[in-house]
Amino acid sequence: MSLDALAPELERLRDADLYRRRRVQQGPQQPRARIDGRELLSFCSNDYLGLANHPKVIAALQRGAERWGVGSGAAHLVNGHSAAHEALEEELAAFTGRERALLFSTGYMANLGVISALAGRRDTLLQDKLNHASLLDAAQLSRATLRRYAHADADALAAQLERHPETRLVITDGVFSMDGDLAPLPALAERARRAGAWLMVDDAHGLGVLGPGGRGSLAHFGLDQDAAPILMGTLGKALGVSGAFVAGPAVLIETLIQRARSYIYTTATPPALAEATRFSLRLAERETWRREHLQALIIRLRDGATRLGLELMASATPIQPLVAGSAARALAWSRALEERGILVGAIRPPTVPEGSARLRITLSAAHTESDVDRLLAALAELPRADRAD
Ligand SMILES: *Cc1c(COP(=O)(O)O)cnc(C)c1O
């Protein structure tokens, strides 16, 4: 096959308003972003606590580099595992109230590693319909049978568990990445426990944001390790750094060290990053004002949108989507906002279901109240014809 066959496919994506392009950031991750040569007020990062560009986290990274150098030099099981990684793992286990934690290079890799280590060809996995792409890819890699239950529906899960008693894992996002809503974790945990399946929660968007001390969506509901034995958290979102971890019983962590291929066959992340993460974890836990300010911004945005007659999706988290419907409309809205100096990404299929393309507005503790007001003023000017359906 000639590579020329790829060009018509790209053309088709362009015609369907599904073509994606990257913007070039010319400065650090922060609300006032310099992008493609312009200053834009950005509402699309997952830096929910505003730690990605925090001077003390930067300093921790610099000190880490002075102490540990840059590269880890090898995989954790060869000789890339440092005292910095070890300390971070212990701190993450304590933070999440789990027996042990294990670092992965990314959340995507953590999900691949856990699910393919714990399930195989003869097993069944049950997943929420709106789970993150990495969880679905992990199911494929494991070769287990994947069944999906209706979004955030514990009764639908119970019905599936009844039909498939061999189910090994029930897997859900804690906070859904494109919708911002919370999974009904207590009910899911109860159903999974009764069926003898393990509950795995991907808390990429809950960690740092929800629960006492930002301990995440499980802590928000008071669910401990017995209720939800497998917790995956990412370090590149609210914690502002990079990487991920899995936390749970010691026997789970030991199994992952022996069997998770995306843990074993890859270079450990730089120890300096672990030092930076240790620092940002401390800030995330202690600086409660970040979560309080974020919560105030969420309320300000939602109240303002209601006054404008704009219906944001039902969400109490920093992810506040505005559904446009077609990909073309989502793009038109995103462009209209950009003309007013505001950056909000248009999220289109296949990231979200067909017909539910949306603006994914995200808030950060680094935003000010007047930033939110500017966003509202720009939303008020979205072309009326576009707004009414
Ligand atoms: C971002 C995300 C991941 C992937 O994490 P990375 O560290 O970015 O690879 C996994 N799950 C969910 C729900 C996410 O939002």
UniProtKB/TrEMBL annotation:
UniProt binding sites for substrate: 20, 132, 351
Residues bearing PTM N6-(pyridoxal phosphate)lysine: 237
Pathway annotation from the record: Cofactor biosynthesis; biotin biosynthesis
Keywords annotated in UniProt: Biotin biosynthesis, Pyridoxal phosphate, Transferase
Reactions that this protein is recorded to catalyse: 6-carboxyhexanoyl-[ACP] + L-alanine + H(+) = (8S)-8-amino-7-oxononanoate + holo-[ACP] + CO2
PROSITE patterns (alphabetical): AA_TRANSFER_CLASS_2 (PS00599)
GO BP field: biotin biosynthetic process
Chain ranges of the Aminotransferase class I/classII large domain: 39-379
Residues involved in pyridoxal 5'-phosphate binding: 107-108, 177, 205, 234
UniProt cross-references to Pfam families, sorted A to Z: Aminotran_1_2
Keyword Transferase: yes
EC number annotated for this UniProt entry: 2.3.1.47
Gene3D superfamilies documented for this protein: Aspartate Aminotransferase, domain 1 (3.90.1150.10), Type I PLP-dependent aspartate aminotransferase-like (Major domain) (3.40.640.10)
PANTHER family the record matches: 8-AMINO-7-OXONONANOATE SYNTHASE, CLASS II AMINOTRANSFERASE/8-AMINO-7-OXONONANOATE SYNTHASE
Family: Belongs to the class-II pyridoxal-phosphate-dependent aminotransferase family. BioF subfamily.
Subunit structure: Homodimer.
Protein's UniProt name: 8-amino-7-oxononanoate synthase
Species of origin: Marichromatium purpuratum 984
